[in-house]
Amino acid sequence: MTENDTLRERIAAELAAARDRTTLLTTIVDEADLVRQHSPLMSPLVWDLAHVANQEELWLLREVGGRIPMHPEIDPLYDAFEHPRAKRPSLPLLQPDEARSYGHEVRGRVMDLLERAQFGRTQLTDGGFVFGMIAQHEQQHDETMLATHQLRAGAAVLSAPPPPPAPADAAALPAEVYVPGGPFTMGTSTEPWALDNERPAHVVDVPAFYLDTTPVTNAAYAEFIADGGYDDPRWWTAEGWAHRQRAGLRAPLFWRWEGEWVRVSFGIANPIVPNEPVLHVCWYEADAYARWAGRRLPSEAEWEKAARYDPVSGRSRRYPWGEETPSPSLANLGQRHLAPAPAGSYPAGAAPSGARQLIGDVWEWTSSDFLPYPGFVAWPYKEYSEVFFGPEYKVLRGGAFGVSPVACRGTFRNWDYPIRRQIFAGFRTARPAAERAL
Ligand code: AVJ
Ligand code: FE
C-alpha cells in the first residue's frame, strides 16, 4: 500500500466513525425529539445533523472537489454565525429525513472524491488535513449532541457500560505531582490534523509547580459545598460572585439535594459517586473551589507542560503517555462510557509527572483566556478560532469521555464562556512550587 492509500483508509475510517456516532445520537430519539429545542443553549439535534453535512459539502465537495453547491438556498440556515442557537428551531430547517438524505448524499460523493484524492497538491489537503478537519468537526458536534442528550428531559435512551473501577493504587496516590520549572515546547507545527489555534510550536518558560494528580472529585467538591463555599464571597472573584448570585448557583448543574446529593446523568438519577471527577461546573465555580482549597487553577501552559513535557528527553509528547494514539487502556474517550472514570484510573495513560487522566474523562478548566499563540495564522477559516480570541472565553484542556480521539491530543484547545456548565467540564487545581527546597 502506498502512503496515500494508508491515509485514504484512515480518513475513511474516521469519517465513518463520526457518522456512526451521529447516526446513533439522532436515531435513538423520535422525530419530535429531533426537532425540539431541549435547551436554549443548544440547537435542535436536526440542526447539528444537517450542519455537519453542510460543512462537509462546503469543505470537501466545493473547496477540494470544485463542485457547485448542492442546495445553495440552505447554506445560510446552517451557518453558525447567521443564527444563534436559541433561534434555530424557528428556521425552515430540513426535516429529519431530508437532513439524513442530504448527509448521505454528501458522504457518498465525498467517498468518490476520496478514492481519487491526491494529497498535498494544496495546503488544504496536505497530510489529509481538510478531511481530518471535517472528521473532527462532526465528532465535535457529536459531543455537542451528547450535551443536548444530557439536557433532554424524559426517559433515558442512551446507555453504555460503566467505566472500569479504579485501579488498586488509586487510593494511595499522592494528592499532587511536581512539574519542574524551565522552558518547554507548547503547541505544534508538525501534527498534521492540528487546528490553527494549536499552532505554531513555541517555547514557553513555566516555573515549577504542583498539580493535582487527578481531577477534583465529587466528594471533594461536596466538601466545598458543605463548608458553605457557595455562600462565602471570599472564594469568588467579583464577577464570579455576581454570577453565583444572579444564577442562584448552589451545586453543579444536574445535582439535586435529596437528603444526599443526587446527580442526573442522561436521564438516570443516582447518588453522586464520591471518587468520580466532578462534572458540569462553570469556570467561576472551579475558580472558587480552588481558592477555597488554598490553591488556584493551572494556567493553560502549566496544563500542557504537565501533559506533554518529558523531562528525560526535554521534548513535548503528543499525549501524556507518549506518541501512541489513545486506546481504551490509556484514556476514557469516544463515548465508550457515558461518565468519567474514577479518579486515579488509567495508570498506563499517566504523564511523566505522574498526573493521571489529563486526557479524557472531563474537560479541565484552566485559568487562561483563549488567545492566539505567537505567530498564529488563521487557517483555513477565521471563524474556527480567530473570532473567539479574547478575554471573554476561558480555555479547557484534555477532552472528556464524550470526545473522540480524533479531536483530542495534548495540544488540543477548547474554549467557552466562564458561566457555561452544560459542557462536560471539571477541573484540577495547582499551586506554585517556589517553596520547594533544591
Ligand atoms: C471548539 C467546541 C468551541 O462547538 O463552538 C464546531 C467547535 N466549531 N463547529 C464549538 C466547533 C465549529 C467549537 N468548540
Ligand atoms: Fe460546527
Describe the protein in words.
Helix 1 (3-27) packs parallel to helix 5 (129-151) and helix 7 (238-247) crosses helix 8. The chain has 438 residues and is an alpha+beta fold. The strands form 5 sheets. A 4-stranded mixed sheet has the order 12-11-10-13. Strands 1-4-14 form a 3-stranded antiparallel sheet, with helices on one face. Strands 5-6-7 form a 3-stranded antiparallel sheet, with no helix packed on it. It has helices at residues 3-27, 31-35, 45-64, 96-116, 129-151, 218-226, 238-247, 283-292, 300-308; strands at residues 176-179, 182-186, 202-206, 209-212, 255-257, 261-265, 268-271, 309-310, 315-316, 363-370, 390-397, 414-416, 425-426, 430-432. The protein has 9 helices and 14 strands. Strand 6 (261-265) and strand 7 form a beta hairpin. Fe (iii) ion is lined by residues 51, 55, 80, 137, 141. N,N,N-trimethyl-histidine binds next to helix 5 and strand 12.
Entry keywords:
438 residues, alpha+beta, 30% helix, 13% strand, binds N,N,N-trimethyl-histidine, binds fe (iii) ion
In short:
The protein is α+β, with helices and mostly antiparallel strands. Helix content is 30%, strand content 13%.
User: Could you tell me the strand content as a percent range?
Assistant: 5-15%
Structural class: alpha+beta
Radius of gyration: 22 Å
Number of helices: 9
Ligand names: N,N,N-trimethyl-histidine, fe (iii) ion
Percentage of residues in helical conformation: 25-40%
What is the overall pLDDT average? 97
Number of beta-strand segments: 14
For the termini, the CA-CA separation is 54 Å
Question: Largest sheet at a glance?
Answer: 4 strands, mixed
Order of helices and strands: HHHHHEEEEHHEEEHHEEEEEEE
Query: Biggest sheet: strands side by side, in what order?
Result: 12-11-10-13
Low-confidence stretches: none
Spatial shape: globular
